[in-house]
Amino acid sequence: MSRPTAESGFPRDPSAPPPARRERLVWIDLFRGAAVLIMIETHVVNTFMVNSLRADGWFTVLNYINGLVAPSFLFIAGFVQGMERGASPDKPVKFARRAGHLLGILFLAYALHFPWTELGQHRWDDAVRVGSQADVLQCISASLLLLLGVTWLAQKIGGRRGQSVWWCVLTALLLAVVFLAPYAPGWNGLPVPLQAWVNRSTGSWFPLFSWAGFVLFGAMTGAAYGLARRTVETADLIPQPVAGSTLSLMSLVRRSSSVFLITPVPLAVSAWAFRDAAYSPVSPSSFFERAAWVLILAACCEWLAGRLRPSLPLFAGKHSLTLYVTHLVLISTLVGAGLSMNTISLAGVLALIAGVATVSLALTWVIVNARAFVRSARGSVK
Prior knowledge:
The chain is mainly α. The chain has 19 helices and no strands. Helix 4 runs parallel beside helix 8 and helix 5 packs antiparallel against helix 8.
């Protein structure tokens, strides 16, 4: 069976032009770019703003908004991989290459946590603890490696059974990391590098419980979104009366933000159902609440991208990893140069946010263009 027939279920007219490559979805870059730009603000505020301002009411609102940045970042990472799976389930995956890329991100994540100070002061236990902490990049790379393993298993099984395995395993993993997260703080006694993945007892900000849930949730949402796109694209190959009767709902899902605006409702209900007296970031209610907000933000970005193409967040979204690393290095440099932590006024913090964002974006632009120049030079040599 030919590939077009296998993917769509309908033979393609040989005289028709080959199917165009799916375009890059602008709204995903917009969402990712907005997330990484707000992340710069979050890190600057958390590092430098004077502690006395944190008791003000406006900071509570700001802190809540900032708390949606990491879930959004994690969600997008899973969404992109899941959408590829939903849109092209038969597309071969270069597992070794993708695993190598994710391991490279994991290495970079640990490099950013290298315990220079602790090693210099011969504090060996602290060096192990600090150097093995799990940050957002560790969580993303480990979660995507897990997702890659599930995809490999599904492709080995193949067919509809493989698809069912993919969905069932991801659902089981999602439920496990979300509903076991409240118990994870009590799971201690593992070697420190492994303990860092379980809870915050070693100082990790993003252990797998329950942060990996946003990546898995993003993958499942992306797969559903990609499936809807693929179903609508095959409508052109189906007789019009049949297409109009069977694909109108999918067309609605594909051509509007309804898939994101409808699904927050059951998530919000779940958040209410699983609420507890001691609301905490690891509670299922917290996860469902933030997941609902992430979907609403995704809907807003999809709607906005159809009307505006703001260049700054789009640039930040296309080069989010470089911008993320650059701004962290810049903040660490400022601290190392003697800029006091948690002592700067609001006006000073606002100036720092603008300065760090501007310099980070400029350095990212230089790095991106330097890479392009090197690739061009290598190509001309060949």
